[in-house]
Structure formats: structure tokens, C-alpha cells
């Protein structure tokens, strides 16, 4: 039987990064993945394919709507070749998952394909092409998550679908009904809206992206409405029915009245649930919470002292970069180091256009905690760079402590916000004040100048270009 210092179950961004870091630190490492490709949700059916389709559909929308005003004339009709678009997405996925195979080989990590399940706290059975068993001094559970559903919805995976199917449709929906105005619903809703579908979003809470700062939600709502999304907040979905090619969604609005939406596809994007099916956690003495998450302490250690858990299967944001940080954290803990993760500084991004990105506390959280704060905002449309590229929507908002000026939260919506948020993370990691950021030189003309201007506005209301 093969023996390892550490075995990792699941090869998503949590698992494969943990494996690399363990190997770098000199541990004999194995990784177990039930699917034939490595990379987990993120690389196969999550972050990477969704961004590939967002990029392709963005190009199409630019060609149809914006090329002309840039002085680019295209003779003839511009058409979408969905098969080719989905094919390109798949080749991006294949290249990326292939890259993980390479990294495993490079770091001398043994890869096992098959469902991993605990025999006891130090032995794992792997049900692959042939059943085998390995021994591991330590194990890291990184089994991720699966789409959640509402109890009354039957996902037929043809017309009533999750994100996984939405990434490989064979036709552009005429009318896509999206249940859940969170990250997946809006990103994939925007893909199909750009490609020509009518898109109706039905959201239970009183606003889309309800966990983000209300200002971001309001601005994104405005932009999506301008693009003719139908957004129905405060609607509680109560039934989804498929009749041939038609999908009928019934919901109750705020007043308790029934509202009926009819479309040809329905994307159910109401969150994801931690995934531990078949893992046989009990055999290893690993406790699972009522919500199905693996229970962990502040060291990400489970109730079995040699078993750790990371990523979507434990508490916290379900984000690839959070899973990666936790993978590194556990590897370094196993090597006797004292790593640290500041969960407050894990940024959140929605890759719609304009992009939405945030780090730190929202205004709602600061109010609730009774923290006295000041705000500085700057609209993207006041930037030369925004006018040059015609990306005028959005703003940057900085929240700083009223007395000390320390930055407590940065919330932005605009072109390239997903990349710009890194500046805010660095600033907050070093506990910068708004004035610190306002005194740093920002290249001109760039979108990042909005961060400097918002910092000036937060410092003492002295933005320069507004
Ligand atoms: P996963 O990536 O889910 O990987 C878990 C792996 O474990 C899977 O491969 C699974 O097959 C395997 N596994 C499970 N059980 C077993 C077992 N018993 N034996 C063997 N293998 C097993 N996050 C971002 O940060 N940015 C984004 O842009 C983004 N976009 C997304 C878009 C979509 C459409 C979706 C669905 C998600 C997106 N996410 C994004 C979320 C991101 O994919 C997850 O947070 C991330 O993949 C979690 O990583 P993980 O390693 O915890 O688990
Ligand atoms: P989400 O939590 O972002 O959004 C789910 C939405 O569904 C929420 O707004 C919620 O209020 C709503 N909802 C819940 N029950 C409902 C009901 N009965 N009727 C109507 N609306 C209802 O979840 P998601 O969009 O499914 O994404 C799942 C996870 O994947 C998220 O945790 C997210 O972090 C991750 N993800 C991240 C990215 C990214 O980082 N860009 C992209 C996609 C997914």
C-alpha cells in the first residue's frame, strides 16, 4: 500500500494548490479526484469557462453595438456561432486543466482518479478503474460544492438548468428566466443577454447581489435595466414547471400577489452547497455541521486531529482564491509554520460588465457595528480613460474610519474593477489610511485614478477632477 505524508481529496483550487504547497515543503503528497480532469468546479465548470463565455459574448456585443461609434465598419451581418464559442470555451478549459496535470508532475505529486472515501482516519479507499487503498498521515478534505436547488424544483438539466448546463447550451435561449440574482445568475444572464436572449431575473431579496454594498447593487441594477434585463427583486419563487419547450416560473411578489414568468430556459442559481457525498466522514471521526459543511477550528482542523478541510466544503465565502489561501494555510500548518489568513481582506468580484469588486466592510456592516466612518466616492465617467474607452458607468467608493482615516472597505463598479481591487487589498493589508492612497501616484490615464480620487474625497472631500 502506498503511504503519504499528506493526501488531498479533491483537486479544485483548494486541493491542487494545497498539494503543490505540501510538495514544495517536502511532504510526500497524493491527490485524489473523482473526475477524469483536475481543477474542480473552478477550472471545469466555474470560474474559467464562465469567464471565457463572458469574454466571447463581450466581444460580440462590442462588435454589434460599439464598433460603429469607434469608426469600425463591418460589411454584412455579425452573427454568433454558438457551437464555436462553446468550443473555444472548452479548449480554454482543456488547456487550463492540462496545466494542473503538468503542475502535479512537476511537483512529483501522485494523482489518483476515483472517488475517495475514508476507511478510517489514516486510510482512504479510492474507487477508480480499480479499487485501491492508500495510507496518509494527514488528509486535507477539499471536496468543494455543488449547485443548490429549491425543494420544489425538478432540474431536468435540459431547460431547467444549473450553471453547469448553462455553460454548454446548444442554442441561445429566446427567454432565459434566472432564479437568483447573485453572482452566477448575473454573470451567465449577461452572457445570454449579450447573445440576444431576453433575460428575466427573479430574486428573493430586495436587491440583486444582496450580500454586497447596497451602492454597488443599485448601480449594477441601473446598468442591467438600461441593457433591458427584467429584474424582479422581492419575489419568492414557489413553482417551476416545464411544458414541452416552455418553462413557467411562479413567484409571489412583495404584496403577496402571484406573478408568472414564461420562458424557454430557466437557470437556477440560488447558491451552492458543500459536497461530502460518498466521503464516509464518520469512519474518520470528522464532524459535519447541520448545513453540510465540514466543521473546522481556526487552524482548519476537523474533529479528527490529522484531518483538515478547506475551500467550499467549509464555512466562509465560496471563492476560488479563498480556497487557495486555505490550501496554502493548511500545508504550512502541517509543516510547523504559523500562517495567517485575514478573511476580511478576501475580495469579492462579479465579472459582469461593468465589473463589480469589493473588499472589507460594507456601509451596512459598519452601521450595524456602530463604527463611525466617512465615505469618498468618485464616478468613473469623470475619468479621461473612461471616456476614451466609452466605459462610463460606475464609481469607486472608499469607506474610512472617521477618526483614524484607516480604510475599512473599498467598493467599486466599473471597467476592470476585478483587477483594480487588488490595489485596495494591498492598501488594507498594510492598514493604509485614505490619505496614504490619495498621495500615491497613479498612472494617467488609467481607471485606477478613480481610486486615488475616491481616497482624496474620503480624506477631506478634495477630489480633483469633479
Ligand atoms: P471545487 O473546485 O468544487 O473542487 C472540489 C473537487 O473535489 C471536485 O473536482 C470534485 O470532483 C472533487 N471531489 C469531491 N468529492 C470527492 C471525493 N470523495 N473523492 C474525490 N474527489 C472528490 N470563484 C471565484 O473566486 N471566481 C470566479 O470567477 C468564480 N466563478 C464561478 C463560476 C461558476 C459558474 C461557479 C459554479 C463557481 C464559480 N466560482 C468562482 C466558485 C469557485 O468555483 C469555487 O469557490 C471553487 O471552485 C472552490 O474550490 P474547492 O477547491 O473548494 O472545490
Ligand atoms: P449567490 O449566493 O451569489 O446568489 C444566490 C442568489 O439567489 C442570492 O441573491 C439569493 O438571495 C437568491 N435566492 C436564494 N433563494 C432564492 C429563491 N427561493 N428565489 C429567488 N432567489 C433566491 O449564489 P450563486 O450565484 O448561485 O453562486 C454560488 C457560489 O458560487 C457563490 O457563493 C459565489 O461566491 C460563487 N461564485 C463566484 C463567482 C465570482 O467570484 N465571480 C462567480 C460565480 C459563482
Structure characteristics:
binds nicotinamide-adenine-dinucleotide, 14 helices, single chain, five-stranded parallel beta sheet, alpha/beta, 466 residues, binds flavin-adenine dinucleotide, 22 strands
Write the layout of secondary structure elements.
Layout: E1 2-9, H1 13-24, E2 29-33, H2 40-45, H3 47-66, H4 82-106, E3 110-113, E4 115-120, E5 123-127, E6 131-141, E7 145-147, E8 160-161, H5 163-166, E9 175-179, H6 183-194, E10 198-202, H7 214-226, E11 230-232, E12 236-243, E13 246-252, E14 258-263, E15 265-268, E16 272-274, H8 281-284, E17 307-309, H9 320-334, E18 348-350, E19 355-360, H10 363-369, E20 373-379, H11 384-389, E21 395-401, E22 407-414, H12 417-429, H13 434-438, H14 449-460
Helix pairs in contact: 1-9, 3-4, 3-6
Bound molecules: flavin-adenine dinucleotide and nicotinamide-adenine-dinucleotide (NAD).
Terminal Cα span: 69 Å
Radius of gyration: 24 Å
Low-confidence stretches: none
SS field, number of helical segments: 14
Distinct small molecules: flavin-adenine dinucleotide, nicotinamide-adenine-dinucleotide
Shape: globular
How much of the residues is beta strand, in percent? Answer: 25-35%
- Strand runs, count: 22
Helix-residue proportion? 25-40%
Mean pLDDT rating: 98
**Category by helix and strand content:** alpha/beta
The main pleated sheet reads as: 7 strands, mixed
